[in-house]
Amino acid sequence: xxxxxxxxxxxxxxxxxxxxxxxxxxxxxxxxxxxxxxxxxxxxxxxxxxxxxxxxxxxxxxxxxxxxxxxxxxxxxxxxxxxxxxxxxxxxxxxxxxxxxxxxxxxxxxxxxxxxxxxxxxxxxxxxxxxxxxxxxxxxxxxxxxxxxxxxxxxxxxxxxxxxxxxxxxxxxxxxxxxxxxxxxxxxxxxxxxxxxxxxxxxxxxxxxxxxxxxxxxxxxxxxxxxxxxxxxxxxxxxxxxxxxxxxxxxxxxxxxxxxxxxxxxxxxxxxxxxxxxxxxxxxxxxxxxxxxxxxxxxxxxxxxxxxxxxxxxxxxxxxxxxxxxxxxxxxxxxxxxxxxxxxxxxxxxxxxxxxxxxxxxxxxxxxxxxxxxxxxxxxxxxxxxxxxxxxxxxxxxxxxxxxxx
Length: 406
Hints:
By secondary structure, this protein is mainly beta. Helix content is 3%, strand content 69%. The chain is built from one helix and 21 strands. It has a 20-stranded antiparallel β-barrel.
């Protein structure tokens, strides 16, 4: 958390007048859970897990400054000693400073969170076990300018420095990126998009250079609907291995508000750091989410398709992993104080070594004892089946939690 704390200190100095009237949100939760397979093994151990979760968040938006930060810690104690006690952190910090009259900006971001050791498993499933996870910190600082060219054209030109490191023995990365993004408005509904970026990634075993050029557009086809597309070539060169790869880059999305139903679709290409191998994966993805709300009920169905490729080994059988996730969630207010929630996820991971299928299911109840005090209980189930015997196991968890907000 070193970078997070340094960034937080610098931002507090930069926007010190904003702290005269702070708007904090804080919480503290204590829970007790029974877990029949703590280590997620074929013949795992059972244990009782005591958890303490402090939380804190702050947001201020002024005429020229934006500061938002949040923190949630989790301390886990295993009564039978099946695992060592652990203290994990989930922190976010974002500061934006208008340094010169809406033309020159300073943007600072830092995130510290748990991630899967294997990046091809996707994002961490909420409330999943911390087995095979580790803490990742991403620090980014970006100065940029936003020149305008007449009434219809504008651009964003800048530089971004990022540092990625882990709390275990993993390679850290330094990333330098220069970018130009331009927009020309044909009308209030239609705009032409274009851009170029050059990225250099440096870590212990490798240096890569990546160039991306794109053209595209944005169209607001209705008051409550918008669609956009960016596409173009990308070329990556791995200096130390004297290899390179070229492919199509794209970023496209659709958002539509039907009133009681929200539709969100997104597809694109991103470049993700893998803690396990130290490589950068080219990730092609598509997501879909439908959310419907009633007076007392909210339901969502969602899907994610992903393909990860290690392009540094192109021509030498580079690794490819495909992942498909299907899920649904439901929340219903049984009364003004009592809410029930449930969820179901199917996660299928296909790689050259083995196929792994994971099911996640949960059901929970939350009861508001008072305006600031809440009581919750849950049951969570996880099933993993794989060609790899070490990935064949089941987990049942049941717990209760008391939460105080301040």
